[in-house]
Structure formats: C-alpha cells, structure tokens
Amino acid sequence: MQVIDTIAAFRKALDGERAAGRTVGLVPTMGYLHDGHASLMRRAQAECDVVAATIFVNPLQFAANEDLSSYPRDLDGDTALAAAAGVTYILAPSVKEMYPSEVLTSIRVSTLTETLDGASRPGHFDGVATVVAKLFNIAGPCRAYFGEKDYQQLAVVRRMASDLSAPVEIIGCPTVREPDGLAMSSRNAYLTADERAAAPRLYQALQTGRRLIEDEGESDPAVVRNAMTGVVTTEPLFTLDYAEVVDAGDLTVPPVLAGELRLLIAAKIGRARLIDNIGATR
Amino acid sequence: MQVIDTIAAFRKALDGERAAGRTVGLVPTMGYLHDGHASLMRRAQAECDVVAATIFVNPLQFAANEDLSSYPRDLDGDTALAAAAGVTYILAPSVKEMYPSEVLTSIRVSTLTETLDGASRPGHFDGVATVVAKLFNIAGPCRAYFGEKDYQQLAVVRRMASDLSAPVEIIGCPTVREPDGLAMSSRNAYLTADERAAAPRLYQALQTGRRLIEDEGESDPAVVRNAMTGVVTTEPLFTLDYAEVVDAGDLTVPPVLAGELRLLIAAKIGRARLIDNIGATR
Description:
The structure is a homodimer of 282-residue chains.
Chain A: E1 2-4, H1 7-19, E2 24-29, H2 35-47, E3 50-55, H3 75-84, E4 89-91, H4 95-98, E5 105-109, H5 116-120, H6 124-139, E6 143-147, H7 151-163, E7 169-173, H8 193-198, H9 201-214, H10 221-233, E8 238-247, E9 260-269, E10 272-281
Parallel strand pairs in A: 1-4, 2-3, 2-6, 3-4, 6-7
Antiparallel strand pairs in A: 8-9, 9-10
C-alpha cells in the first residue's frame, strides 16, 4: 500500500491503473478509521480492481464552533486498517495541498440540505459536496463508497453526482454497530465511560420508532417523533438535536407515513455530537 | 462528424476515444456558431486528437427576464461550421436530457462573480459554472476551450476547475472580430441595420481606454472608466451597463492601474445586450 500526500502523485498512480484497464473504487474518509470504514473498503475491494482511500479532515465542512481542531487523528492506525481492508493507495493530503489558495468555489445541493443536519450545521453539506466533487475529480473512480451512517450526506452526494453527471456510481453501505448497538463513529472517541454506556440509547430510540411504524402501523410522524424523543430525553446525558422520520428518498416529512422511510436522530452527549439512523417500511 | 443527442451515447463515444489513447478537446457552446467558435474548434483540433463540441442553450444561466426563449438557433448551420472546423462529435441535447429532474445542485464561484456581469446578471455565473462542470464530467476532456470574449466567464471557469481539481486544462482564446471591430457574438443577430452600424462603438471605447493607459500612462481607473463611458454614451442607441478597468487576474478594480489589466464593457442596444473586453498593460 502507498500513502501519498500530493494530489499530483495520487492522480498519476490512479491514471496508471486506469490506463492499464483497471477499475478504481474510492473510499473518501476523514480518517481515525474503524470497522465501518473497513466495511466500505472491503466492499470496494470486492467490486473494483483497485481501491483508493482518502484521509482528509475537510475544514470546509466544519463551522467555527465545531470540532475541527480536536477531530481525532491516527495515520499509523489508519494505514494498518486500510491495508488490511484491501486499500492500495491512500491520499492523505495537508489542508495546504487540498486548498492552496482561498476556495472560492462552493457546491450546494438545495432542499436536501435544508433540514436535519443541514439545519443544525449551516454550510456543512456545502463543504461535503464541494470536497467530494473535488475528490471525484482527483481520483476518477468508477464507484465511490459512503456509509449509510451519514444518511443525509449519502443523499446529498448521490444528488450532486447525478445532477452534475459525475461518471461515478455512488454506493451506500450499511452502518456498522458495536455489539450494544452504538453506530461506529470516529467521534465515539470523545465519549467518557459514562457517556459511552449511555450512547446506545440513540439506537434504542430509533428501534422504538421503527417498531411503532412496522409493528403497530403508526402513520403519524409526530407520534413516532415524540416516542423517539422520549427515549433519548430520559437519558439526562443527552441533549437532543432532532429525532425525525422522513421519506427515505427526498428526506421530507410525509403527512402520512408510507413506503420507504428513514428515522434519524442527532444528539449531543458530552463533547460529542452523535448521529444515527435506520430504515423502516410501512 | 456525429451529432449526438444523449449524454450516454456522447460519453460512450468519448470513452472509446480515450480508451484508444486519444486526447479529447472540448468546446462548450450555446450554438448559433460563428467564426469565434470556429477559432476555438481549430485550436482544439491543433492540440488534441479528437474534438468534441456541445451545443446547449443552458436555461440555468438565463434569468427570467432574459433572452432564453429567443436565443438564436441553427443546428444545421452549426453542424456545417463545426465539421469544417475539425469537430468529430457534437452533443446537442434537449433540456430534458441535460436536466431530467429539478436541478438541486449549484456551483458558485464567489468574489469573481460579484462584479461586472455577475452584478448585472444575478445567478448567471452559477448557471455557467454548474453546466460547465457537468459538461466536463460528461466529456472528460483533457483541454477545454473558451473565448476571451466572455472574459469573466473564462475567469470563473478557470477558478472553478482549479478549486475543484478538475482534470482539464482551460484554454482561453482571443476574441474574433468583424472587420469593423465588433466582437463576434451570436447575439449580434439581434441587431437591426442601424444598431449594427453603431455597435463597433463598444470596441472603440475599449481602445480609447487602452490608449489612455498605454500611451498616456493614465493610472486612475476613474479617468479610464469615464473616457470609455463617454465614447459609448455619445451613441444614443446604447444604454451603458458598465465600463470598467480591472486587474486581469482577480477582476478587482485596483486603486492605481498597474500590471496586466482588462477593460470591459457591457451595454444594451435594441434587443441585444453586448459585451466586449480587451487587455492593457501598464
């Protein structure tokens, strides 16, 4: 495996692979890799001839009050995990390498970014869409892999790629969970022991919502929302940001729950802001 | 030459060319081609193995009060001109083909788009940047050719491509003029005989500005602006939009004129809004 820190060298390596007729799968990450990332890499390895990953904590997608400076990093651990998961090339560029001058260009995906995490984190998804489009231009993948853990991000990336006719297939992969149900996340590293013990409450709230819909036939989004909210807020360590049930495709709240739905939660606990989601069908 | 109306078929043709090791040059246009476009195509033919052109009157870059519906079209004439200028593939898609569903994604290049035509045509350059990024994704060119006639557009496209690491070299080509100095433009077709006779006044105004800077050493942008304004406004058929002298790189008005400069003018005459620009050095 090669760890590369310049765009030019990474592009040259992948140009060579493509020129030799090999397909490239891309796994964009912010590093501090865990088994969720490894599952994306293994999926890419199964579907593509060569797997490239990027490790870049992208300043564009952090607001001034967020955790850019404290975001966890471990390049040695990341390279070991990525190598074991089948990655051949890692691009781990500096901010200066990615953004040598002021970034004037921004990509916005309207509508999809105006609710949920988009409402809580203004500009976040502009930063995501912009860096992902740039990484697509740099890597030229035929497939790119994103976790469903960041469900709204996946929807934004899918729409950006479709609207802009990016020559890449976007693959969403299932969330990987700890044995107690907590969704794997680099930000779980922020949790104290007490917070870590309380954290699976988010997944429990999502399961409560799904049971209401699938087992009890609940069709009122407010009832589902309130039930999930109740499960989270009885844990005093949590400060709920949102608990919502939306159409799985366009992320709008339907007046009557029907078809493919997605339940999503975001909450703060200690230094961490955690998000999670699951699907439901009615 | 092949005229293709679907993205998939155009992409497949160019994928085949690239797979055979041939470089692709792209000339994006809105059609109603003239010798200015032909000069871009001939330059592309000289520098690339295969030349692809696109003909698409992009609704995203027209405001509601602009000339989208009346923009001149002549696909038969365009194909003849393009074939003679060395084009192998033309993509001439419908609006439905380019934008099958609502376009939620928009690319904005800040700062560069806030003055001159960007101020007069809000959202115009967002539409340009968005469609050009999409055309780059569709065609996968190694070089793309744009006229200096649309100088601010060229600056916006350059910055977009650079910020997003698009794997394409942006080539700016000199404006092609009629014998009396009028810059070639598809919108010249709107001009009546009287308006056409008056139209070279824009180029004369630009030359007046350049003479002030280069021959008389004028360093005050207001003096140059006023001189150009005077030349345009003495022709009553014109309604001046702007006459400005800016830094050729970042398009800002310098307090003291120095280095590589660009003089730009926009004015309405009859149904047409014409733009033109030239360089100057001090």
